[in-house]
């Protein structure tokens, strides 16, 4: 029997009222329905939908395409430098512009995400990614370097609409027992794009001296990228949705029932910067991810320095670094969903990233390229595996603030440190060699490990889920006063 939009006897709500008692309180309890099907002030129904998997895999796919375009120049740095007649450092800037563009545009995009929601951000990100890919199609001749810069800047802007989304998609669409795994899947696409960006360009664009042949090979890569970006943009238009009809977790249900604040976004930013644990996480995340960005950008140069002529293997080493990291990210997400040990897992992975970087530093110049494959894989497993850990730990520390805002601040920190580390390490490598450049990164990973020790595991999102479940269990055997008690508590 359905009364006022609430099903009597529904297991989720624990109702056991008599009909006459329900009629007696009906005027107070049954205002008009809200869009998710529950009455204002009541506990919204929690459900999961199959569409959540479509959403996360579609996001992961266009994130893949965008990150591929980030590294496609850096993985064959010297070939593009020769083709366009510029220095290798100028090609490095094609990767670094992703980091530079992100910083000033984060806050406007995070505000849009907070005000307009996921669908608008997804459409903008996939559209800009598609546009940038087609602009680069027009840069297939040696004298058109400014055109390829323009296309890369557009793709960099698309990244602003992508990087902060994983934890938000996971929270809005997934239940509390799978939210960390979902975030890992969302990050997985970004990392897979980087992996393919290391592997595919050396295959599609061989190091030939004839610039006409080289232009032909480059055009194939650009056209393939643009075709994939276009198909994904069309899918986003047709498939991507704002949010599910019902909240997927009790933490999300509480957010749905909360009244919106005036100036909520600015207030949220202020609260985040007053959260000491989150500020410490922003610093430690930036140090780790900044090191990863620098290492990814300069990897080709470092490998070729010690192993001349190994362009294909340099790309494969980058692939190994990222694929191992994707495995690490998925394992981390599953582990967090099972154990909820955010602080311990984050600290362990951070320390192992530092250890892996030290081992990579002292084995790079041994003369055995298979050793570089092994050490790069070990380093990638932990360093790349750290990325979704940071997003999810931030979501826990800052609940109920917007996941897009907290993730965005983490990424700003990463971009700032990434720019500093890439430029600094590149200069150190040119003057003092690769070992000195890698020791520079080791020092900052050690500092980040120390900072992580001081972060307290204030798991607010988990506490919200547990408290809400406890309220439901306590109220299940009660009589007709249950809705009023529930309303007052929520």
What features would you describe in this structure?
By secondary structure, the protein is an all-alpha fold. It is globular, with a radius of gyration of 25 Å. The relative contact order is 0.14. Strands 1-2 form a two-stranded antiparallel ribbon. Residues 1-42 and 479-490 have low confidence and may be disordered. The longest helix is centred in the middle third of the chain and has 31 residues, at 276-306. It has helices at residues 19-29, 51-71, 77-84, 88-116, 118-137, 145-160, 166-173, 179-204, 211-239, 250-257, 264-273, 276-306, 311-339, 342-363, 369-383, 386-398, 403-432, 434-453, 460-475, 482-489; strands spanning 2-3, 6-7. 76% of the residues lie in helices and 1% in strands.
Give the strand content.
Answer: under 5%
H/E topology pattern: EEHHHHHHHHHHHHHHHHHHHH
Structural class: mainly alpha
Overall geometry comes to: globular
* Secondary structure: number of strands: 2
Q: Would you tell me the overall average pLDDT?
A: 80
Termini Cα gap = 25 Å
């Amino acid at each position: 029997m359905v009364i006022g939009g609430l099903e009597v006897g529904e297991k989720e709500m624990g109702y056991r009222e008599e009909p006459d008692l329900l009629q007696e309180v009906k005027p107070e309890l049954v205002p008009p329905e809200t869009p998710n099907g529950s009455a204002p002030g009541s506990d919204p129904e929690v459900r999961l939908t199959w569409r959540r998997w479509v959403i996360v895999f579609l996001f992961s796919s266009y994130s893949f395409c965008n990150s591929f375009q980030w590294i496609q120049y850096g993985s064959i740095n010297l070939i593009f430098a020769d083709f366009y007649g510029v220095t290798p450092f100028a090609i490095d800037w094609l990767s670094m512009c992703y980091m530079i563009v992100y910083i000033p545009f984060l806050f406007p995009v995070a505000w849009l995400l907070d005000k307009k929601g996921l669908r608008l951000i997804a459409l903008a990100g996939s559209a800009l990614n598609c546009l940038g890919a087609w602009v680069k199609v027009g840069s297939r001749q040696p004298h058109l370097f400014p055109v390829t810069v323009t296309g890369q800047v557009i793709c960099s802007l698309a990244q602003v609409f992508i990087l902060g989304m994983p934890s938000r998609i996971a929270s809005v669409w997934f239940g509390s027992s799978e939210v960390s795994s979902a975030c890992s899947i969302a990050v997985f696409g970004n990392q897979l794009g980087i992996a393919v960006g290391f592997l595919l360009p050396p295959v599609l664009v061989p190091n030939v001296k004839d610039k006409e042949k080289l232009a032909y090979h480059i055009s194939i890569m650009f056209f393939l990228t643009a075709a994939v970006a276009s198909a994904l943009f069309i899918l986003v238009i047709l498939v991507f949705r704002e949010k599910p009809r019902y909240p997927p977790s009790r933490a999300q249900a509480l957010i749905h029932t909360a009244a919106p604040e005036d100036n909520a976004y600015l207030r949220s930013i202020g609260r985040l910067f007053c959260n000491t644990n989150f500020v410490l996480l922003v610093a430690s995340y930036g140090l780790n991810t900044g090191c990863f960005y620098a290492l990814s950008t300069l990897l080709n140069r470092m490998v070729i320095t010690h192993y001349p002529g190994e362009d294909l293997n340099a790309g494969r080493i980058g692939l190994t670094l990222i694929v191992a990291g994707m495995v690490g990210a998925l394992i981390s997400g599953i582990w967090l969903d099972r154990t909820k040990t955010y602080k311990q897992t984050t600290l362990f992975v951070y320390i192992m990233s530092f250890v892996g970087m030290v081992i990579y530093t002292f084995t790079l110049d041994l003369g055995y390229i298979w050793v570089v494959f092994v050490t790069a894989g070990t380093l990638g497993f932990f360093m790349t595996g750290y990325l979704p850990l940071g997003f999810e730990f931030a979501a826990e520390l800052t609940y109920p603030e917007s996941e897009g805002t907290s993730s965005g601040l983490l990424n700003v920190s990463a971009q700032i440190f990434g720019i500093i580390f890439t430029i600094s390490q590149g200069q150190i490598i040119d003057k003092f060699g690769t070992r000195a450049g890698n020791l520079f990164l080791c020092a900052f990973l050690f500092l980040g490990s120390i900072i992580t020790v001081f972060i307290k595991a204030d798991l607010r999102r988990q506490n919200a889920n547990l408290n809400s479940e406890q309220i439901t269990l306590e109220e299940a055997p009660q009589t007709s006063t249950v809705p009023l008690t529930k309303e007052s508590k929520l």
